[in-house]
Design a protein that fits this description.
alpha/beta; globular; Rossmann fold
Length: 245
Protein backbone atom coordinates (compact mmCIF):
# COMPACT_ATOMS: atom_id res chain seq x y z
CA UNK A 1 0.00 0.00 0.00
CA UNK A 2 1.23 3.47 -0.93
CA UNK A 3 1.12 6.53 1.32
CA UNK A 4 -1.61 8.14 -0.81
CA UNK A 5 -3.87 5.11 -0.28
CA UNK A 6 -3.16 5.06 3.46
CA UNK A 7 -4.05 8.73 3.77
CA UNK A 8 -7.20 8.23 1.70
CA UNK A 9 -8.53 5.43 3.93
CA UNK A 10 -7.52 7.30 7.09
CA UNK A 11 -9.21 10.50 5.99
CA UNK A 12 -12.36 8.57 5.01
CA UNK A 13 -12.72 7.31 8.59
CA UNK A 14 -11.92 10.71 10.10
CA UNK A 15 -14.43 12.51 7.86
CA UNK A 16 -17.28 9.99 8.12
CA UNK A 17 -17.18 9.83 11.92
CA UNK A 18 -16.03 13.36 12.76
CA UNK A 19 -12.89 12.16 14.52
CA UNK A 20 -10.89 15.39 14.33
CA UNK A 21 -11.93 18.95 15.15
CA UNK A 22 -10.10 22.26 14.89
CA UNK A 23 -7.07 22.56 17.22
CA UNK A 24 -7.27 19.01 18.55
CA UNK A 25 -4.15 17.72 20.27
CA UNK A 26 -4.08 13.98 19.68
CA UNK A 27 -1.95 11.41 21.50
CA UNK A 28 -1.07 8.45 19.29
CA UNK A 29 -0.62 5.32 21.38
CA UNK A 30 2.57 3.61 20.19
CA UNK A 31 3.05 -0.04 21.14
CA UNK A 32 5.91 -0.49 18.70
CA UNK A 33 3.83 -2.80 16.52
CA UNK A 34 3.00 -2.35 12.84
CA UNK A 35 -0.47 -0.92 13.44
CA UNK A 36 0.49 1.94 15.75
CA UNK A 37 3.50 2.93 13.61
CA UNK A 38 1.29 3.04 10.52
CA UNK A 39 -1.23 5.24 12.34
CA UNK A 40 1.56 7.55 13.49
CA UNK A 41 2.87 7.83 9.93
CA UNK A 42 -0.60 8.57 8.55
CA UNK A 43 -1.53 11.28 11.07
CA UNK A 44 1.92 12.86 10.90
CA UNK A 45 1.47 13.41 7.16
CA UNK A 46 -2.24 14.21 7.25
CA UNK A 47 -1.80 17.14 9.67
CA UNK A 48 -0.01 19.13 6.94
CA UNK A 49 -3.01 19.37 4.61
CA UNK A 50 -6.13 18.36 6.56
CA UNK A 51 -8.60 21.31 6.55
CA UNK A 52 -8.91 21.28 10.34
CA UNK A 53 -5.66 22.15 12.13
CA UNK A 54 -4.51 19.54 14.65
CA UNK A 55 -1.32 18.39 16.36
CA UNK A 56 -0.11 14.98 17.49
CA UNK A 57 2.25 13.50 20.06
CA UNK A 58 3.43 9.91 20.19
CA UNK A 59 3.23 8.09 23.53
CA UNK A 60 4.46 4.63 24.56
CA UNK A 61 3.56 2.96 27.85
CA UNK A 62 6.68 1.00 28.82
CA UNK A 63 5.33 -2.00 30.73
CA UNK A 64 8.69 -2.69 32.35
CA UNK A 65 9.99 -5.58 30.26
CA UNK A 66 13.79 -5.34 30.24
CA UNK A 67 14.32 -6.22 26.57
CA UNK A 68 12.33 -3.35 25.01
CA UNK A 69 14.40 -1.09 22.74
CA UNK A 70 12.60 2.03 21.51
CA UNK A 71 15.54 3.85 19.90
CA UNK A 72 14.33 3.24 16.33
CA UNK A 73 10.89 4.57 17.19
CA UNK A 74 12.46 7.71 18.64
CA UNK A 75 14.37 8.10 15.36
CA UNK A 76 11.13 7.72 13.38
CA UNK A 77 9.41 10.36 15.52
CA UNK A 78 12.34 12.72 14.99
CA UNK A 79 12.08 12.11 11.25
CA UNK A 80 8.34 12.83 11.30
CA UNK A 81 8.81 15.86 13.59
CA UNK A 82 6.57 14.38 16.28
CA UNK A 83 7.15 14.72 20.02
CA UNK A 84 7.69 11.31 21.64
CA UNK A 85 7.01 10.49 25.30
CA UNK A 86 7.76 7.18 27.05
CA UNK A 87 5.79 6.38 30.21
CA UNK A 88 7.80 4.14 32.54
CA UNK A 89 5.68 1.68 34.57
CA UNK A 90 5.95 -1.55 36.60
CA UNK A 91 2.89 -3.12 34.97
CA UNK A 92 4.69 -6.27 33.82
CA UNK A 93 6.00 -6.98 37.33
CA UNK A 94 2.57 -6.39 38.89
CA UNK A 95 0.71 -8.56 36.38
CA UNK A 96 3.13 -11.47 36.06
CA UNK A 97 5.14 -11.53 39.31
CA UNK A 98 2.99 -9.96 42.01
CA UNK A 99 -0.51 -10.90 40.86
CA UNK A 100 0.53 -13.96 38.81
CA UNK A 101 -2.55 -13.46 36.63
CA UNK A 102 -3.81 -16.53 34.77
CA UNK A 103 -5.48 -14.15 32.29
CA UNK A 104 -3.05 -11.22 32.30
CA UNK A 105 -4.32 -9.35 29.21
CA UNK A 106 -7.37 -7.80 30.86
CA UNK A 107 -5.53 -6.33 33.86
CA UNK A 108 -2.57 -5.26 31.73
CA UNK A 109 -4.84 -3.42 29.28
CA UNK A 110 -6.70 -1.67 32.10
CA UNK A 111 -3.48 -0.49 33.78
CA UNK A 112 -1.88 0.50 30.48
CA UNK A 113 -4.86 2.61 29.44
CA UNK A 114 -4.97 4.23 32.86
CA UNK A 115 -1.30 5.22 32.68
CA UNK A 116 -1.72 6.49 29.12
CA UNK A 117 -4.82 8.56 29.82
CA UNK A 118 -3.37 10.17 32.93
CA UNK A 119 -0.19 11.19 31.12
CA UNK A 120 -1.76 12.55 27.93
CA UNK A 121 -4.19 14.68 29.93
CA UNK A 122 -1.20 16.32 31.63
CA UNK A 123 0.29 16.90 28.16
CA UNK A 124 -2.78 18.87 27.14
CA UNK A 125 -4.21 16.26 24.78
CA UNK A 126 -7.96 16.03 24.32
CA UNK A 127 -7.97 12.91 22.14
CA UNK A 128 -6.20 9.56 21.94
CA UNK A 129 -5.82 7.70 18.64
CA UNK A 130 -5.82 3.90 18.72
CA UNK A 131 -4.58 1.85 15.76
CA UNK A 132 -7.44 -0.67 15.55
CA UNK A 133 -8.11 -1.76 11.96
CA UNK A 134 -10.87 -3.71 10.19
CA UNK A 135 -9.64 -7.09 11.40
CA UNK A 136 -9.52 -5.85 15.02
CA UNK A 137 -13.13 -4.67 14.75
CA UNK A 138 -14.32 -7.98 13.30
CA UNK A 139 -12.34 -10.02 15.83
CA UNK A 140 -13.74 -8.02 18.75
CA UNK A 141 -17.26 -8.66 17.49
CA UNK A 142 -16.51 -12.40 17.24
CA UNK A 143 -15.00 -12.49 20.75
CA UNK A 144 -18.00 -10.65 22.14
CA UNK A 145 -20.35 -13.14 20.49
CA UNK A 146 -18.43 -16.23 21.65
CA UNK A 147 -17.39 -15.22 25.16
CA UNK A 148 -20.01 -12.66 26.21
CA UNK A 149 -23.14 -13.69 24.33
CA UNK A 150 -23.67 -10.27 22.78
CA UNK A 151 -22.89 -8.35 19.59
CA UNK A 152 -20.44 -5.59 20.41
CA UNK A 153 -17.25 -4.11 19.00
CA UNK A 154 -15.10 -0.97 19.04
CA UNK A 155 -16.80 2.33 18.31
CA UNK A 156 -14.99 4.66 15.87
CA UNK A 157 -15.30 7.47 18.43
CA UNK A 158 -15.69 7.01 22.19
CA UNK A 159 -15.91 9.76 24.79
CA UNK A 160 -14.49 8.85 28.21
CA UNK A 161 -16.63 10.46 30.90
CA UNK A 162 -14.11 10.57 33.74
CA UNK A 163 -11.11 11.98 31.93
CA UNK A 164 -12.84 14.01 29.24
CA UNK A 165 -10.71 12.30 26.59
CA UNK A 166 -12.12 11.13 23.27
CA UNK A 167 -10.81 7.92 21.69
CA UNK A 168 -10.64 7.72 17.89
CA UNK A 169 -9.78 4.85 15.53
CA UNK A 170 -8.67 6.30 12.16
CA UNK A 171 -7.45 2.98 10.68
CA UNK A 172 -10.88 1.32 10.83
CA UNK A 173 -11.17 0.99 7.04
CA UNK A 174 -7.82 -0.77 6.58
CA UNK A 175 -7.31 -4.53 6.71
CA UNK A 176 -4.33 -5.90 8.60
CA UNK A 177 -2.85 -6.97 5.28
CA UNK A 178 -2.93 -3.35 4.10
CA UNK A 179 -1.00 -2.31 7.20
CA UNK A 180 1.58 -5.08 6.73
CA UNK A 181 2.12 -4.02 3.14
CA UNK A 182 2.64 -0.39 4.10
CA UNK A 183 5.08 -1.23 6.88
CA UNK A 184 7.17 -3.45 4.60
CA UNK A 185 7.17 -0.94 1.75
CA UNK A 186 8.27 1.90 4.03
CA UNK A 187 10.56 -0.15 6.29
CA UNK A 188 8.98 1.10 9.50
CA UNK A 189 10.92 0.06 12.64
CA UNK A 190 8.54 -2.49 14.17
CA UNK A 191 9.49 -3.53 17.71
CA UNK A 192 8.49 -7.08 18.61
CA UNK A 193 6.37 -7.32 21.74
CA UNK A 194 8.37 -8.71 24.70
CA UNK A 195 5.17 -9.95 26.38
CA UNK A 196 5.40 -13.71 27.14
CA UNK A 197 1.74 -14.32 26.17
CA UNK A 198 1.86 -12.40 22.90
CA UNK A 199 0.13 -14.41 20.17
CA UNK A 200 -1.62 -16.94 22.43
CA UNK A 201 -4.65 -14.90 23.45
CA UNK A 202 -8.39 -15.26 22.87
CA UNK A 203 -8.02 -12.61 20.18
CA UNK A 204 -5.57 -14.82 18.31
CA UNK A 205 -8.12 -17.65 18.47
CA UNK A 206 -10.81 -15.34 17.05
CA UNK A 207 -8.43 -14.17 14.31
CA UNK A 208 -7.69 -17.75 13.22
CA UNK A 209 -11.38 -18.68 13.32
CA UNK A 210 -12.36 -15.73 11.13
CA UNK A 211 -9.56 -16.48 8.66
CA UNK A 212 -10.76 -20.08 8.42
CA UNK A 213 -14.35 -18.94 7.79
CA UNK A 214 -13.15 -16.48 5.15
CA UNK A 215 -11.03 -19.17 3.47
CA UNK A 216 -13.98 -21.56 3.27
CA UNK A 217 -16.41 -18.76 2.33
CA UNK A 218 -14.51 -16.16 0.26
CA UNK A 219 -15.64 -12.62 1.04
CA UNK A 220 -17.10 -13.54 4.43
CA UNK A 221 -14.78 -11.16 6.27
CA UNK A 222 -15.85 -8.22 4.12
CA UNK A 223 -19.50 -9.11 4.66
CA UNK A 224 -18.93 -9.30 8.43
CA UNK A 225 -17.47 -5.81 8.41
CA UNK A 226 -20.35 -4.50 6.29
CA UNK A 227 -22.81 -6.00 8.77
CA UNK A 228 -20.97 -4.30 11.64
CA UNK A 229 -21.03 -0.93 9.87
CA UNK A 230 -24.72 -1.28 9.03
CA UNK A 231 -25.85 -2.71 12.36
CA UNK A 232 -23.44 -1.78 15.15
CA UNK A 233 -21.72 1.37 13.88
CA UNK A 234 -23.77 4.24 12.49
CA UNK A 235 -21.96 7.37 11.27
CA UNK A 236 -25.03 9.46 12.04
CA UNK A 237 -24.98 8.53 15.71
CA UNK A 238 -23.09 10.71 18.26
CA UNK A 239 -19.87 9.37 19.81
CA UNK A 240 -20.32 6.50 22.23
CA UNK A 241 -19.85 7.53 25.85
CA UNK A 242 -17.97 5.14 28.09
CA UNK A 243 -16.26 4.85 31.45
CA UNK A 244 -12.52 5.09 31.70
CA UNK A 245 -10.91 1.69 31.91
Amino acid sequence: MKLQQLLSYTRKAIDEYGMIEENDKIAVGISGGKDSLTLLYALAHLRYFYPKKFDIVAVTVDLGFKNLNLEKIQELCDQLKVEYQIIKTDIAEIVFDVREESNPCSLCAKMRKGALNETVKKMGCNKVAYAHHKDDIIETMMMSLIYEGRLHTFSPVTYLDRTGLTLIRPLMFLYEGDVKGFVEANELPVVKSPCPVDGITKREYAKNLINQINHENPGAKARMFRAIINGLINPKCPPVSGKDK
